[in-house]
Amino acid sequence: MSADDTAHMAHALALGRRGLGNCWPNPAVGCVIVKDGRIVGRGWTQPGGRPHAEVVALTQAGTTARGATAYVTLEPCAHHGKTPPCADALVTAGVARVVAALEDSDPRVSGQGFARLRSAGIAVTTDVLADQALRDQEGFFRKVEQGRPMVTLKLACSFDGRIATATGESQWITGPEARRRVHAMRLSHDAVMVGAGTVRADDPTLNVRGMGTVRQPLRVVVSRHLDLPIDSALAQTARDIPVWICHGPSATGPRRTAWADTGAHLIEARVTGGQMDMGDVLRLLGTNGLTRVFCEGGGALAASLLQAGLVDRLAVFTAGMALGAEGRPALGALGIDTLAEAPRFALDSVEICGADVLQLWRRA
Question: Which helix (H) or strand (E) holds 221?
């Protein structure tokens, strides 16, 4: 692996991240085409998943792609979907070499894209900045391999782990810089998810604000009984920004009809032990195409995800204030008796975010 290969792949990865949250159910891929040391084409997966990154870059490069090197963050697809295979597009364009970060685990591709390139006489180099690419593709791979989206759990709390006072006041524990960062995180996920209690208490919109004109993530609510206020902000905006509600079999017919009339998409999931089965909820979200979900609580939903081992990343914003034992905890009951039972995460980074601290954790 040369320094040039590393630099160009880093560029392709940065481009690919522009598609995160925008191109599900497809992976967010970046592509850079280099000829004689000069970049002649670049692209990333477009909103809705097409055109693919390679096609965008090849179109920009035109005839200069012949004899060039293409840097791609994921193995070029080899199957006919709604568009022809990208491996064929690279062959037709006459590129001399393809450098890829990762092999695609989708069984429709999984090595076949590389094989098609090699059979056409194109040199293929793989595993360039693979660790970085794997992080970017975690959501896509989770859906392909486990049938569910990647879950990022966000907590914003006082330094004693409280998300509201005893009376429910919570706006604002963290400052404007932290809130802006949360909006950026929403933007890089396919959906924002909350529990019914959060909708009833806060009446959130769960949209991205202050980032210009962007493609909004859809909103997911987990509500066992579908007992949500029909005059809420989510109901009023469901035809503008999609709202999906995951509910249990006990949700009554009138409630289902009322929410369906708002334009919301209703998904019935299993209930286990009197609680929504979050494994089934996430499986159904994956079946519907989601790859990256940003969960913003509340405490009961966060605890159920942690109990089920379904949290892949944690984003914890900590404010410099204390609310005491009477405040509302960030997490509901986990039923833990020993430290060995506690879910554990590995620290990725710590950074100052205005007057607050942001810790990013990954599943250990």
Answer: strand 218-222
